[in-house]
């Protein structure tokens, strides 16, 4: 039975990366066509869920949540109900590619610009020869093309649909079309295709071990500073968050 840590009212399962990958492997082994939606929960999504009922419904309805970032993990520790480790969208993508390379999974890549998307697909084919990239689509398509893109994914029937449209756009896009995508697992991975393609540099291992990947990104992409302002706000609100008492029955 899975244990959970409460992050601003959102129950996040206490799973390590190997346990998360194993759960997804189990889903794929069942060969069911019902889409399994994985949401990589970051502070931005958790904060938005407090005012956005539609997004909260999407998160509550997801098949699996992961702790995307050290901020989520640190808050769980401060609230004395610790998550074991972070399971970021980027790390999860690489782990799924490794597992897919061994098991012959098929992937569809949705997101990033055309050059980045194409390069990511090419590099995946080179580095993971056991993986099939059955389709791809850059993320700068017009909303009027949503159904065309969804139909292309459905026609390709990938084992894993990788959606790099940014959060929470990816989560909304998957949820709105989950009954017709014909993918078996769908996961939002933020800007991870940029890292796969090498257009954005991943923080060195030492920065990752120090949980300072966010600082590395900020130093290399100063334009992110406005977005990073959410982190201290999230930490304060999440630590002080109080569960709402259930409504009394009349």
Automatic annotation (TrEMBL):
Keywords: Cell wall biogenesis/degradation, Glycosyltransferase, Teichoic acid biosynthesis, Transferase. InterPro entries: TagA_TarA (IPR034714), WecG_TagA_CpsF (IPR004629). Its EC number is 2.4.1.187. It catalyses: UDP-N-acetyl-alpha-D-mannosamine + N-acetyl-alpha-D-glucosaminyl-di-trans,octa-cis-undecaprenyl diphosphate = N-acetyl-beta-D-mannosaminyl-(1->4)-N-acetyl-alpha-D-glucosaminyl di-trans,octa-cis-undecaprenyl diphosphate + UDP + H(+). Pathway: Cell wall biogenesis; teichoic acid biosynthesis. Belongs to the glycosyltransferase 26 family. TagA/TarA subfamily. Catalyzes the conversion of GlcNAc-PP-undecaprenol into ManNAc-GlcNAc-PP-undecaprenol, the first committed lipid intermediate in the de novo synthesis of teichoic acid. This is N-acetylglucosaminyldiphosphoundecaprenol N-acetyl-beta-D-mannosaminyltransferase. It comes from Paenibacillus glycinis.
């Amino acid at each position: 039975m899975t244990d959970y840590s409460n992050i601003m009212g959102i129950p996040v399962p206490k799973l390590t990366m190997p346990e998360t990958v194993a759960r997804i492997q189990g889903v794929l082994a069942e060969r069911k066509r019902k889409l399994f939606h994985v949401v990589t929960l970051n502070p931005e999504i958790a904060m938005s869920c407090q005012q956005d009922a539609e997004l909260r419904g999407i998160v509550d309805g997801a098949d699996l949540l992961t702790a995307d970032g050290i901020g989520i993990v640190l808050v769980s520790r401060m609230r004395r109900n610790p998550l074991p480790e972070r399971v970021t969208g980027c790390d999860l993508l690489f782990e799924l590619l490794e597992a897919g390379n061994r098991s012959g999974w098929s992937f569809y890549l949705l997101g990033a610009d055309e050059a980045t998307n194409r390069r990511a697909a090419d590099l995946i084919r080179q580095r993971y020869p056991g993986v099939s990239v059955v389709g791809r689509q850059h993320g700068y398509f017009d909303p009027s093309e949503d159904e065309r893109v969804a139909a292309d994914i459905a026609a390709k029937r990938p084992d894993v649909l990788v959606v790099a449209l940014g959060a929470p756009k990816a989560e909304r896009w998957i949820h709105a079309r989950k009954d017709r995508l014909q993918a078996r697992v769908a996961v939002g991975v933020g800007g991870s295709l940029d890292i796969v393609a090498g257009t954005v540099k991943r923080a060195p291992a030492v920065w990752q071990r120090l949980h300072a990947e966010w600082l590395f990104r900020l130093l290399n992409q100063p334009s992110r500073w406005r977005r990073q302002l959410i982190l201290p706000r999230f930490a304060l609100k999440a630590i002080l968050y109080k569960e709402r008492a259930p409504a009394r029955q009349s």
